Recover the amino acids of this structure.
């Protein structure tokens, strides 16, 4: 295969009670990536669309992820990776993960799938670490594997694909604000109250049980965050107002996507998600900050070839 | 109904990654309780078997739980509760919970089941608080509801009955040691490292996903405790040796039951549990402390009438 064109979905991680361990892949929001073989032995990064990204392959998450994979496989061929960057960097819906995961998934396809998607994870994480300065999988894993995933463990890495009701959909508001992930993480400190930790794992257990059994009421009751949201929500203007609007309009839950600034509402059905999205947007508008609204189902596959 | 005779199962709580939120009901280990109507308006406690328990209804967990229920229902009839106490108090397998839950469940049956088992929970918890000085549900809930339960939340109380593979069984060793629950809890402190909390909720998520999908490998990998076991295991002689023996003999996981001193091995099948129990016992014997060994399936029903 000399060329591949793929869709690399945006992802929502953390999801209230799932800090650092949960993520899901969106269906209708994502980057496009085209990878071509070249005659030399170089990796090159091109950009066809979107906010400017580094084109030096050693500074670009897709380049670093691709290099990690190619070195692992002992492949010295040249490839050009062209990115249509539609997920804004810094939005909190997995922009760098889409590039890192897309590069390794696309190359793996072109090379005859020598590795499984699970095996691609560490290479994608190596790429993403360039952007986030952290070793985390809660965006690259759902991007690569699709659906709703749990990072059970980082050492060893153990990523579980969860069962979930197929009618779930999300409304996402991305306020055009900059939140530095490192600062957002520093807010949390190194320790948490045991009672908050217990409340969090009770909810995480409830969420996973509810997802498995298709119990929307249990999913809804479980979407509480006792750890990050209380400390981080102040970085997002009108957070409480948006949350109230979402819940009143019928959302199952509402919280911060990743470390923000995007916020998500989990909903039962795509049409309700669109309606709930309008209510959240209406509640955010008086703030006067530009924003994007995305509504999407969860995609069971993650990255996929564009026919 | 003027008389009822019931089996009140022992319960295993915490279960490694499920500190304060998980519990399960055993099939073959438990107390017997006989409740009879009496002519007066008094509650009385009788004991037919086992280590001495308080017979003053205001000091006895069954008495306090029964009084809470009867007051709630406005019932002033007299009842005599006779307990064959086969679960040793202080064993860490829900001795007080069996008495508290048994009293309210049995009375509720005699009164024509005015309350659901979920509604009985707070009355049983009121009784158990007499013994443990704490408001917790991780023994009374599985005792009342049966099976494997998750306490998603205490405020409001929300107890979830989990799906689990029917072949699970446990081997339990109860070393005849006294561990004071309050001291055991004090060891934990009020705060934990965020990274340990994340590891714990990753494992709890994995366990609940594995229980729901019948993935024994995932159940096994998830039975890790980053919170209580590292601090509490030193209270139990030969803990590490017993754990190694259990895992080498094929246990899915091994940890402290409740706050100890009992330890449990979760196993795939009752015969393997018996074999694994022998290995754990063999590993504990050199310590020279008397102990009991119990092997049991998980019972889906919890408290039940003895025909």
């Amino acid at each position: 295969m000399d060329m591949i064109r793929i869709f690399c979905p945006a992802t929502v991680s953390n999801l209230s009670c799932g800090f650092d361990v949960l993520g899901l892949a969106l269906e209708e929001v994502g980057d496009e990536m085209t990878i071509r073989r070249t005659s030399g032995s170089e990796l090159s990064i091109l950009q066809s669309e979107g906010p400017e990204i580094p084109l030096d392959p050693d500074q670009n998450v897709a380049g670093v992820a691709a290099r990690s994979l190619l070195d692992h496989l002992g492949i010295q061929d040249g490839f050009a990776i062209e990115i249509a960057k539609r997920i804004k960097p810094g939005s909190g819906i997995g922009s760098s993960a889409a590039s890192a995961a897309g590069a390794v998934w696309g190359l793996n396809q072109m090379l005859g799938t020598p590795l499984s998607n699970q095996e691609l994870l560490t290479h994608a994480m190596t790429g993403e670490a360039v952007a986030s300065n952290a070793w985390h999988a809660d965006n690259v894993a759902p991007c690569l594997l699709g659906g709703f995933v749990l990072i059970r463990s980082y050492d060893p890495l153990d990523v579980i694909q969860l069962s979930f009701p197929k009618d779930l959909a999300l409304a996402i508001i991305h306020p055009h604000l900059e939140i530095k992930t490192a600062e957002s993480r520093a807010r949390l400190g190194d320790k948490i109250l045991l009672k908050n930790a217990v409340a969090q794992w009770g909810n995480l257990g409830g969420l996973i049980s509810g997802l498995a059994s298709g119990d929307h009421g249990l999913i809804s009751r479980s979407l509480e965050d006792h750890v990050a949201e209380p400390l981080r929500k102040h970085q997002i203007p009108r957070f409480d107002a948006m949350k109230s609007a979402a819940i009143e309009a019928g959302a199952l839950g509402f919280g911060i996507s990743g470390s923000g600034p995007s916020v998500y509402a989990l909903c039962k059905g795509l049409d309700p998600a669109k309606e709930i999205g309008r209510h959240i947007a209406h509640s955010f508008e008086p703030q006067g900050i530009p924003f994007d609204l995305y509504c999407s189902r969860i995609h069971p596959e993650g990255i996929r070839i564009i026919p």
About this structure: Residues 223 and 305 of chain A are 33 Å apart (CA to CA). Residues 3-162+300-305 of chain A form a domain with the Ribosomal Protein S5; domain 2 fold (CATH 3.30.230.10). Chain A has two domains: 3-162+300-305, 168-297. Chain A has ten helices and twelve strands.
